[in-house]
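> @MW can you paste both from yesterday?
MW: sure, first one:
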Amino acid sequence: MRTQGRRRLARTYFEASLRRIDEWAPRRTENDNFYYDLTPRNRAYLAALIAAISGQSVSVIEDFIQELADDQELRAHIAGILRRDASLSDLEVGFGRREGWYAMVRLLKPATVVETGVHHGVGACVIGAALLRNAAEGRPGRYYGTDIDPTAGALFTGRYAAHGEILYGDSIESLRSLSGPIDLFINDSDHSAEYEAAEYEEIAPKLAHLSVVLGDNSHVTLALSDFARRRGRPFVFFGEEPSDHWYPGAGIGISPSAVPLGGLG
């Protein structure tokens, strides 16, 4: 096959994404933190991975993921706030990898969840929805978000903020103010490898004996993988497959304190 033929062959792998870019550009104003749903196959892989590291059945994890997908009250809450903000009114929010965050909160029933980097607050609301259901089952927990932007977390209001709060300022300083123990930690702030690693080191002595650390930047850096290796913790990675979106996807780095997670839930 000559050079031109090889070019044509290679481009066939990207044609769908290029078409989606042309459709997306004139109607969406998001410039980062892209929102999308996962493909059915990718969602099935996510459930299987969480089941494998937790020792729980795939069907239980699938039920948690479906519970979020069916939560029309949460979707209406997010859409209602976005409609009132002209700069965000064209956003179409899909939960993507946050489905895994939700399933983790529902599975582990953590007493304390910490997320660094709140942005609009979609993840905070997803976690808040999971904590509401945990509380209704007699297993309440508390969410702490951190963000350096004092306007972050516009979506995190009403009943979804009932079990949580946002700490504004440098995330390292905010993490320093928390006493622990932290059952579930989610890194999603400054995406430099150095800062990500600094967050892990700050929370390391505050992690509960049975805990899970999730990294939102593990598709870019080895920070969580390196942290897990130094601390003798397992590490696995889930890569996203966005549905009907040009973005190739991010993922979830997952480092539990033990495999299977067993008595955490």
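MW: second:
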Amino acid sequence: MAFNVQTFKTRALTAIIFVVVMLAGLLWNQWSFFILFSIVHFGCWVEYQKLVATFHPDYARITPLHKYGIMLLGWCMMLYFTDSNRWMGSIRLSEIVFWLGIALIIILPVSIFFELKSTPVINFGYSIGGLLYLSLSLSLLLSMRLLHVDQTGVARGGEIIALLTIFSLWINDTMAYIVGSLIGKTPLSKISPKKTWEGTIGGVILCAIVVAIIGKIMEFSIYHSIAIAVIAGITGTIGDLFESKLKRMAGVKDSGSIMPGHGGFLDRFDSLLFASIFVWIYVQLAIVHH
């Protein structure tokens, strides 16, 4: 695959916009990050349900209670993971979320199995899959944002970990494209023919180097910075392939059109959806409980 300057400029511009938006939400305060990813959450759910309904038409006939209730349950999961002590005036949000979540957990399965559809079990499976794929992954990202770890004798906020995760995905995608365009010859997968093993491996290596430098500048552990970069680079690529598989099954090029010419929410956050889960696991095992 020859290196295309215009394509590279487009990808770089998209990545810059992505990072700027993430930084604004990440660094402003906890609420801005939650609001930002609440929008991402519902946007991803709308596109996910549309894709599933395309390759499994029966899913298009689920009831509004099922369709929007499962999204709301996922949002409750996100709010639960952000902070158990959030208040809105005199109302403790965690209590509202807890009871609303319990109600939805009871009501949704009952309503789904009473749907007059031929495959309620399969439809329920796709909805549960969406909770794991979309809601849980974003919940864990929000959870990392609130972590407080100490790697240098100074209290550090979890925003650094979230920031390094986002940077890793941006850098890995850019580096993988450059390396793959210049020396890529071996296709990585039939799902995405343009991806090569050379580009994938080169992207992860260069990403680790760059993120290690960023970690050093931010006075964060170089070891953990490299680990986060490698984990995010590898699992982010898998997330990209997974979303490409969904689109191939649905027979579409993009999951949506939030950014004209650049795709939808899932196209922009497919890597993050997978990477956040595995980075969270690493952080819990190697940093928080080490």
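> thanks! The longest strand covers residues 148-150.
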